[in-house]
């Protein structure tokens, strides 16, 4: 018997059961806006239900870490642990979030401004 | 939906990014409870705004004290966010959250890498904006202030609002209607123009010192 879920608890199990009790991902490279892409060539049958759900979501296309957490209704911290495992196993890869190291902030600001003005 | 962790329907609503997107920029929309953050994000977002929640344990006691909430052993903090694709290669994420989350990992995640913040304020409760403005200053995150228009809220001259909020002369102050897409877009434009001016000034100052 599955006990009734507490009102605010949207998952079937407590979040840290999903991560085998780990609070931190195996790598510290995930920002909320890190873009995540799935590789369709690895089998997902052996993954835990949560990782399989994550893979099924990500196989549709690229999403940010925050969006993945939002769609799966998991805390960001838990999502990062799952993502870290799936990057380690080669199921996923990431595109670094912006970063200032790659693109000068002045250029990003100009592109953001152009994009917003075009929406008026 | 309530038990949808691994459900097949969990990702039906997902709207994916264009293949060509290479850069994700981040702006924050902050302010006190019920100031219109979620409405603002919702007006602008091309996806149904999403929410993520984090349950706090250790830091929770302190935040509970600050928030005057009693009888809770854990605190749930939440942020709402939305997305705007601005070009083939650039996507902008808007994260909305209240300031009481200062001690959480979620707040650290939100501020890291953010270009700046828009502080939403309500003329009926201006003093409630201090907390979040102070927090942004602690994080060194530049911001503009947008007074969200509420029906029946008193209209004050700009100078009075500036004074009440103790704004620096350079900090932009605008009014907006968070329900309106164009008005909300204009508020973001004002913020980004300010960030740009500030950036230009900082980089020219840096060059003078070379």
Verbal overview:
The complex is a heterodimer of chains A (120) and B (210). Chain A is mainly alpha-helical and 120 residues long. Chain A has a single domain (15-117), classed as Arc Repressor Mutant, subunit A. Chain A has five helices and three strands. Chain A has helices at 15-18, 49-58, 65-72, 76-88, 105-117, and strands at residues 35-38, 63-64, 92-95. A three-stranded antiparallel beta sheet of chain A has the order 2-1-3. The N and C termini of chain A lie far apart (54 Å). Chain B has 210 residues and is α/β, with parallel strands linked by helices. Chain B has a single domain (23-205), classed as P-loop containing nucleotide triphosphate hydrolases (Rossmann fold). In chain B, 32% of the residues lie in helices and 24% in strands. Chain B is built from six helices and seven strands. In chain B, strands 2-3-4-1-5-6-7 form a seven-stranded mixed beta sheet, sandwiched between helices. The model of chain B is unreliable at 1-10 and 58-72 (pLDDT under 50). Classes of the chains: A mainly alpha (120), B alpha/beta (210). The interface between A and B is large, with 57 and 60 residues.
Topology at a glance:
The complex is a heterodimer of chains A (120) and B (210).
Chain A: H1 15-18, E1 35-38, H2 49-58, E2 63-64, H3 65-72, H4 76-88, E3 92-95, H5 105-117
Helix pairs in contact in A: 3-4
Chain B: E1 23-30, H1 37-44, E2 50-56, H2 60-67, E3 75-85, E4 90-97, H3 105-111, E5 116-121, H4 130-138, E6 143-148, H5 158-165, E7 173-176, H6 181-208
Parallel strand pairs in B: 1-4, 1-5, 5-6, 6-7
Antiparallel strand pairs in B: 2-3, 3-4
Organism (chain A): Streptomyces syringium
Protein name (chain A): DUF742 domain-containing protein
InterPro entries (chain A): DUF742 (IPR007995)
